[in-house]
Recover the amino acids of this structure.
């Protein structure tokens, strides 16, 4: 079964760019079977979808974050990535990567999550 | 405030049956399937119901889901202490350019 693992800095300064990578094992990142997504969860709060990318590179972003988000896939490294620009304290959250194989909101496998704090 | 509305809390005693509701609109639950996630403290969410009422492999049959119109429900029968967790519903919303919506979450306490 798929295994996903997030990596990246745990601390980002305000106005800078948050960059995270999700490493995928146990399945092909270029398979048409899977879509790859990012979801975040501010401390003590609920889940917020950030965006999803298809095996072919088509992206779907949360309209509230669209102007600041880029999700990409690196098939050679079996990784996909998240970039969120111009971060503020409101972007402090646990960031999860996940895979989707069914309906648009059916995230079957999740990474363990990584806490990113935005602070100077 | 989430577009998908869930009660903030629910509770039950061991062995009881509890239900958690998720209310939406015609642009999300009314026209798309609903999935449910369980999040144990300090862990990543886990899919427990997909396509309104289907259970992934490994999820006990104590968990069941249903959908009617613009609302959905998650039911847990034979409640166990290990079921104490946060539960989230999710659905695609067709308004604007489309987006994934999560409910605000329901904290289930096993008394």
């Amino acid at each position: 079964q798929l295994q996903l693992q997030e990596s990246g800095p745990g601390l980002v300064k305000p106005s800078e760019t948050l960059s995270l990578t999700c490493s995928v094992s146990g399945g092909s990142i270029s398979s048409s079977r899977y879509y790859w997504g990012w979801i975040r969860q501010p401390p003590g709060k609920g889940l917020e979808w950030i965006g999803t990318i298809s095996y072919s590179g088509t992206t779907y972003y949360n309209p509230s974050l669209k102007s600041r988000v880029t999700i990409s896939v690196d098939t050679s490294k079996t990784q996909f990535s998240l970039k969120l620009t111009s971060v503020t304290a409101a972007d402090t959250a646990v960031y999860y990567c996940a895979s989707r194989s069914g309906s648009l909101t059916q995230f079957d496998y999740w990474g363990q999550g990584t806490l990113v704090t935005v602070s100077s | 405030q989430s577009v998908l509305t869930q009660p903030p809390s629910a509770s039950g005693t061991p062995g009881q049956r509890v239900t958690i509701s998720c209310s939406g609109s015609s642009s999300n639950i009314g026209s798309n399937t609903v999935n449910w996630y369980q999040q144990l403290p300090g862990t990543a969410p886990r899919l427990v119901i997909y396509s309104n009422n289907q259970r992934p492999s490994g999820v006990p049959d104590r968990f069941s889901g249903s959908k009617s119109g613009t609302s959905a429900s998650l039911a847990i029968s034979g409640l166990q202490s290990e079921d104490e967790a946060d539960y989230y519903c999710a659905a695609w919303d067709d308004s604007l350019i489309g987006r994934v919506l999560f409910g605000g979450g329901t904290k289930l306490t096993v008394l």
User: Anything to note?
Assistant: The mean pLDDT of chain A is 94. The two ends of chain A are 39 Å apart (CA to CA).
